[in-house]
Amino acid sequence: MSTTLSSIIAGSRVGPAARTYASTDPSRTDERVADVALGDAGLFVDACRAARDAQEAWRDVPPPIRGQVIAGAGRLVEANKERLARIVTREVGKPYAESLGEVQEIADTCAFFLGEGRRLYGQTVPSEMPDKQLFTFRDPVGVVSVITAGNFPVAVPSWYIVPALLCGNTVVWKPAEYAASCANAFFELFVHAGVPEGVLNLVFADGEETFRGLEQALGDGLVDKVGFTGSTEVGTWIGELCGRHLQTPCLELGGKNPMVVTEDAELDLAVEGALFSGFGTAGQRCTSLGTAIVHEYVHDEFVRLLDAVTRAATVGDPAQDVLFGPMINERFADGFETYLGWIDPERHTTYGSTAVGRITGKEPREGFTGDPDAGLFYHPVIVDGVGPDDRLFRNETFGPIIGVATYRTLDEAIALANAPGYGLSSAIYTTDPKKAFAFRRGIKAGMVSVNNSTSGAEAHLPFGGNGRSGNGSRQSGIWVLDQFTRWQSMNWDYSGRLQKAQMDVLEIDADLGFLLPEDES
């Protein structure tokens, strides 16, 4: 039997809701994981008000003590690593090995930020006048609203929630309803680590009600910062809404991530990187490989090798050792069907599997494990011959699909890599350092890998994109502290008199016309 999950505001579960959502196992869609009670806009506003009420007391907890709460959360995550990973695998279909890595990312994030509780440094700055000192301080922004997608249902939320709490903010978190069990488990671990009631609030709601609630909460002055991970389209709406209130949200959006393969690249390594970044998590990552841009000299061999390893890869039941499992839910499967419709048989050649589309008993895939008719499984597909005029080239294609384009010069490759207008992640495979640095200089992405895939983040490195991939905000590492704190400056004059800056300043005369005598020897 499935569990019924409801929102948690100020430490209390919310009662029955008028609407529910059935969260199912995407590898066995007839198995219900949880019934999710969906709140409305008013419930979201109530959560923001509870967070506002709790914020001053949490702010007054010394930062090193807040760091100890984060440390406790990290230890609890590590102690529950396998259990949480199994929930992730069951609810969103991520292969178990990847789910373990995702949970580890929460622990790594906690490990990094627990120390930041002792390093929320300001600065003592010398004044231009005597008997006066200047200081700077980091203050929490206040109430943070976090809205996350479900493809990384626990790791990505930690990128927001951990530093936000560490900095003294309170949080209202709206996870994807199709990842409600993952969110509920995450929430429980943080509460048992000592996060007080009202400091972290969990709201289950659909997108429309969430947007309405956020609009009202911003209008009522209940939200000071918004963090959003999701599609570029929705991110644009949230950015517009926050802009009306003179707020800058933290937006982590989609990507069409390029991988350039040069003529001198180690092809086996490039193929390995393409396989993982293109098909890991069934291509349902914002950092998934979009287009491999391959030098004409090695194009045919690259496609041959990538086709071979893709065909040999095991796909299917995410509880097993597989390259990837199912699509997360029906919405993503429907979207992927749309992207597959962009393949033009007259211009494109497909590789990678025995068919294109849904894996079923009638359209099987060799090496599949599990019951193909039970879940949302799709054939991996490599589409050769894509170019700037193709929708497959220009748009994010959330699913197990890799486009392949060809280039002649590195400048052409960089132009192709930038053409879709996204700017999240990128990669180049080369043995020539000059090419690596030329690519770094020319690419507009926020993240660059050399001889590594487009996917993969570490907890102490800035994560984020530009252009259609975000508004330049960064998550992870010390850089995210600027998202969840505001700088305050203070000047303290103890001279006993009013000293006016730029006016009552000691001036020292200098003879700026002085020249050394000419050398007459």
UniProtKB/TrEMBL annotation:
Subunit architecture: Homotetramer.
Entry-linked PANTHER family: ALPHA-AMINOADIPIC SEMIALDEHYDE DEHYDROGENASE
Organism: Actinomadura barringtoniae
Highest taxon in the source lineage: Bacteria
Full protein name: aldehyde dehydrogenase (NAD(+))
Active site: 252
InterPro entries: Ald_DH/histidinol_DH (IPR016161), Ald_DH_C (IPR016163), Ald_DH_CS_GLU (IPR029510), Ald_DH_N (IPR016162), Aldehyde_DH_dom (IPR015590), ALDH7A1-like (IPR044638)
Signal peptide: none
Pfam family name, one: Aldedh
UniProt cross-references to Gene3D superfamilies, sorted A to Z: Aldehyde Dehydrogenase, Chain A, domain 1, Aldehyde Dehydrogenase, Chain A, domain 2
Aldehyde dehydrogenase domain segment(s): 18-489
Enzyme type, top EC level: oxidoreductase
The enzyme's E.C. designation: 1.2.1.3
Family: Belongs to the aldehyde dehydrogenase family.
Keywords, in A-Z order: NAD, Oxidoreductase
MF annotations from Gene Ontology: aldehyde dehydrogenase (NAD+) activity
